[in-house]
Amino acid sequence: MRFVIPTAYFAGLGFALRLQDEGHEVLLAPRGIDDRRQRESYALVGEGVIPKRPLADVIRDRNDYRDAMWIWDENHSAEENELLRREGFCIFGGGQWPERMEHDRDACLAFVAEYGLQPPPSHAFSDPTEALRFLEEHPETSYVFKPDRGENFETWLPLSMDPREANVELQYHLRALTSTSPFVLQEMKNGIETNVEAWLVDGEPRFAFMTLECKRKLTGDLGDLTGCAFDFAFIIPLESGAVRESVGRLFPAYKKMRYTGFADANVIFDKDGVWFLEKCERFGYNAHPNLLWNLNRTPLGQTFQELIDGSFTPDFAPGFGASLSMYMDHRATGHVIDVPEATRPHLYFYDVFAKDDKLYTAGYYDHVLIANAYGYTMQTAWESALQLASSVKFTSRAFRVDGMTVPFPSSPIERYEALRAMGYL
């Protein structure tokens, strides 16, 4: 088969490499970036490991790729995506709807509210000074800081579990802001946070899975927020309480849209019910390599083909997938990545290029790769992921080692047990 992978920040590189390993013809189509300081390292990503061509050129010559399946990573270049859809190309992922759900919070909240999903109380601000006055007037309440524009790691959560102390922490954070983006302060809830995702074909849900992820880079749940430091993924029944009370509420809307793709809901289950946090409908974050590397028993190319032509029937293993992000503690270009041959099929690459039969870090992104592993239990999946990560060597290598420990609030094993006790699983 033939595939084109349009990409913004190389979240789709791992998919491209897996498809190439399966024997398919694959072209990676980077969108490009505006940041002059990073253009050189950006251009290196994927060199020597996968054919590449700028997305603008591929769109211009799109009729040369009419027989290809276009797999869109993340939510970018929505106009190009919709152009291809109008012209009858085979597309999976991306487009105006996912772009809107991820980046237009007001539209997203209005959509989910129609079906009974409500966020924690939120307050919008354009000026930190106004927000500081608000916090001083509500000293007993803890809030999360969410900018309207910015990456995941620019969301800010307090470290303290005491509401008054957390409120003061946020005041310090606001005083240190340099960003001019409007933002919201969202009341912090102390239930069980998780992500529930369903995949649909022509509006009909085919399966659902849950992701329990930890977003801070450092062991002990310390350090900066990142997209995902590690996570666990597992299939859950479409009729489960977790699905029914979260993304399942939106199924009537997707049926009306005859939507093909994935629908997710990041929520908090607590004693008062369900709180909606966000949704992105974005393809290529850690949960997807986790799902498709560790649990899917069908070859990746066949899975994409069946999702696009509507014949998809899920065939997933029971048990758990674990993904473990591997970083460069100090991002740099040109460090050798030593990967044992037996380990390589379990890895999902982000920031690599090849030269003289060796892999190197491109230095565009500190997130170098993901180690993926399967287990019948969370414990065995985690142990296998750690073994895989430990076998990969590169300068300034860093990854978390505490997937099965419990002394921090977002511990996945405790969250899983809590969700079962609450009747959602």
Descriptive account of the structure:
The protein is α+β, with helices and mostly antiparallel strands and 425 residues long. The protein folds into 3 domains: 2-102, Rossmann fold (3-Layer(aba) Sandwich), CATH 3.40.50; 122-187, Dna Ligase, domain 1; 192-421, D-amino Acid Aminotransferase, Chain A, domain 1 (2-Layer Sandwich). It has 14 helices and 19 strands. The protein has helices at residues 13-21, 39-44, 55-60, 78-86, 96-103, 105-113, 128-137, 163-175, 241-244, 251-257, 287-295, 300-309, 378-391, 412-421, and strands at 2-7, 25-30, 69-71, 90-92, 122-125, 143-147, 183-187, 192-201, 204-218, 222-236, 261-270, 273-278, 320-328, 336-337, 347-349, 352-355, 358-361, 367-375, 397-398. Strands 8, 9, 10, 11, 12, 13, 15, 18 and 19 form a 9-stranded antiparallel sheet that branches. It has a 4-stranded parallel sheet with strand order 2-1-3-4, sandwiched between helices. A hairpin with a 2-residue loop joins strand 16 and strand 17. Helix 7 (128-137) runs antiparallel to helix 8 (163-175). The protein is globular, with a radius of gyration of 21 Å.
Descriptive labels:
425 residues, alpha+beta, Rossmann fold, Dna Ligase, domain 1, D-amino Acid Aminotransferase, Chain A, domain 1, 9-stranded antiparallel beta sheet, 28% strand
Helix-and-strand structural type: alpha+beta
CATH class of the largest domain: Alpha Beta
Q: What portion of residues belong to β-strands?
A: 25-35%
CATH homolog superfamily of the largest domain: ATP-grasp fold, B domain
CATH architecture call of the largest domain: 2-Layer Sandwich
- N-to-C span: 38 Å
Shape: globular
In the residues, how many domains can be counted? 3
Strand tally is: 19
- Rg result: 21 Å
Largest sheet: 9 strands, antiparallel
**CATH domain fold name of the largest domain:** D-amino Acid Aminotransferase, Chain A, domain 1
Runs in which pLDDT lies below 50 for 5 or more consecutive residues are: none
User: What does the average pLDDT come to?
Assistant: 94
Number of helices: 14
Q: Helix fraction?
A: 25-40%
